[in-house]
Amino acid sequence: MHPCRAGRYPAPLIPVLLRLTIFSLLLSINRVIGSSLWPHQQINTTDLEFGNSKKNEGSSEFVHLKYHMGPVLTTNITVHTIWYGTWQESQKQIIRSFLNSISAVNSKTPSVSGWWKTLQLYTDKTGANITGTVRLGAEKNDQFYSHGKSLSRLSIQSVIKSALTDTKQPLPANPKNGLYLLLTSDDVHVEDFCGQVCGFHYFTSPSIVGYTLPYAWVGNSATKCPGLCAYPFAVPEYMPGLKALKPPNGDVGVEGMISVIAHEIAEVATNPLGTGWYAGEDPSFPVEIADLCEGIYGTGGGGSYMGQLLNGKDGSTYNMNGIRRRFLVQWVWNPVLNYCSGPNALDQ
After folding, report:
1. pTM of the full predicted structure?
2. What is the chain's pLDDT, residue by residue, as a tens digit (348 residues)?
């Protein structure tokens, strides 16, 4: 979500329209880029897969998604990851696998790469589609908590600056197609984390970092608020009768992060500088393409229902296949069909 809005913050039993409004306020700590549809440009849908579902999940005549003439990420995206705090290699592998799965070829359907096809429907003012290539770039380990275990929104950018200016192994500065993903371990507190947000995206200030770089932050909620930020693999304390679902990769906190990471990357791709795709008239409080589908993971989703999901033989729940792993990822708004869609949609 945008920084001026609150980040992803699940509320499973709130009615869908109210919930979408709340999530619009909770999912964006970072300022989001405006999005107005380019009125004179046909969206290029050639070779893009929709599946056969005609289900109108989340569709509404009141949703006016617009393109605001700013840039979107049409060139190959390189994700540079900053691991802030204490991370196990097994946790890193889950997240790397998801990121690598975005552009994977021949993944078993429904796939993460199929989910990204919806992102490719979005264009810039020249008619160029968002890229189909998302690759992992350089990584930076900040295991000594260079800025402490309590981070403000502003200090998030200072952490990124430190990673870029490190004297030993600095991250490359890539303003054109770099996306900087800051991930904080479960012992790190970030301003508004758990109280308002689970993650957010924005862009760095040249006065702080030296460059204007799109970035996203997502925190591991395992020890702080798993019932809020790792739902449905954990449930809120106020819902004692609800049984948590089994995560497909065995790590509640990290798997809760996966859908938030997907949410933020989707919004960075379509609204990297707050002047791209979003609904609403105020760019400081935009409703972006993932905000519109918060809580929807399958056909029939809406209200307190996540939609029809898939179950593994081990009893885990997922809705997409990746590279040798399975994931649960929320849907995003489809600008051609004008409703939320995903690769696991069922025929009607």
Report:
1. 0.86
2. 766 554 554 444 333 333 333 333 333 333 433 212 112 223 333 333 333 333 334 445 567 899 999 999 999 999 999 999 999 999 999 999 999 999 999 889 999 999 999 999 999 999 999 999 999 999 999 999 999 999 999 999 999 999 999 999 999 999 999 999 999 999 999 999 998 899 999 999 999 999 999 999 999 999 999 999 999 999 998 888 899 999 999 999 999 999 999 999 999 999 999 999 999 988 888 999 999 999 999 999 988 899 999 999 999 999 999 999 999 999 999 999 999 999 999 953
Which residue carries 């991370």 as its tokens?
87
